[in-house]
């Protein structure tokens, strides 16, 4: 009996460490000679928060946009849930996309819609079978998850930058994604609000058991949220490790992020 329990525990640990995202030899060039990605390789394990660091233009955002098909790479392989998303038929790709939440830098809310309407629009687009009562329940739950239930009838123009990010995150969460891709989640926010967003990312991970890639310049955000960090330089992964490991890197360029 004890041996059976040990085997179950080992299997559970193995599954938790199995890659949910695998990227191999990813290349992307814009125009004639703007080679942004030059062979990116990375894996993200189930339940892990991976932070990607890099200077502006190093290809961080391009990498995650390739994952959801917003940008088509020139070469490489992207596996999500063990499926090569670059070769999936459109209907199967859409099924994968619904399981992936994407938080844009701006929050990307529809300015002409109230907070409620923004969330309802997203939900109705993907889950048409829900009743009006079920939709309302989902909207309230998503807003409660980001601590903004009282903003339900506000317009985006009435919200602060931090509130817009939270509502954008609520709109992402409403589809209950297994993976969340965060593109500069704390950019343009003050120190206190940035920490609140970083803590919210952690809270969502623990509550929802999500897997995430977080693109950031914010080292406080990276330190708080990262299980592992990868550093992109000139289109390839230059270094990989925990915050503490990279902070002590022998590579002066890598160490410069942590100073």
Automatic annotation (TrEMBL):
Gene3D superfamilies: P-loop containing nucleotide triphosphate hydrolases. One of its GO terms (molecular function) is ATP hydrolysis activity. It comes from Flavobacterium hercynium. InterPro entries: AAA+_ATPase, ABC_transporter-like_ATP-bd, ABC_transporter-like_CS, P-loop_NTPase. It comes from the Bacteria. Keywords: ATP-binding, Nucleotide-binding, Transport. Residues 21-259 form the ABC transporter domain. This is ABC transporter ATP-binding protein. The keyword Transport applies.
């Amino acid at each position: 009996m004890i041996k059976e329990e040990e085997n179950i525990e080992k299997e559970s640990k193995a599954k938790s460490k199995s890659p949910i995202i695998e990227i191999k030899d990813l290349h992307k060039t814009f125009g004639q000679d703007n080679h942004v990605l030059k062979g990116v390789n990375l894996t993200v394990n189930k339940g892990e928060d991976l932070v990607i660091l890099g200077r502006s233009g190093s290809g961080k955002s391009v990498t995650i946009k390739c994952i959801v098909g917003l940008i088509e790479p020139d070469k490489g392989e992207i596996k999500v849930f063990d499926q090569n998303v670059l070769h999936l038929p459109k209907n199967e790709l859409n099924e994968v996309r619904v399981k992936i939440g994407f938080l844009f830098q701006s929050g990307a809310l529809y300015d002409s819609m109230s907070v409620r309407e923004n969330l309802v629009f997203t939900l109705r687009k993907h889950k048409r079978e829900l009743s009006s009562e079920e939709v309302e329940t989902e909207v309230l739950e998503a807003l409660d998850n980001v601590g903004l239930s009282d903003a339900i009838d506000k317009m985006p123009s009435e919200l602060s930058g931090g509130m817009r990010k939270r509502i954008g995150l609520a709109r992402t969460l409403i589809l209950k994604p297994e993976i969340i891709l965060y593109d500069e989640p704390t950019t343009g926010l003050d120190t206190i609000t940035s920490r609140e967003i970083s803590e919210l990312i952690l809270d969502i991970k623990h509550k929802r058991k999500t897997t995430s890639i977080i693109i950031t310049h914010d080292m406080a955000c990276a330190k708080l949220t990262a299980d592992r960090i990868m550093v992109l330089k000139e289109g390839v992964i230059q270094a990989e490790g925990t915050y503490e490991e990279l902070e002590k890197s022998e590579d002066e360029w890598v160490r410069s992020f942590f100073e």
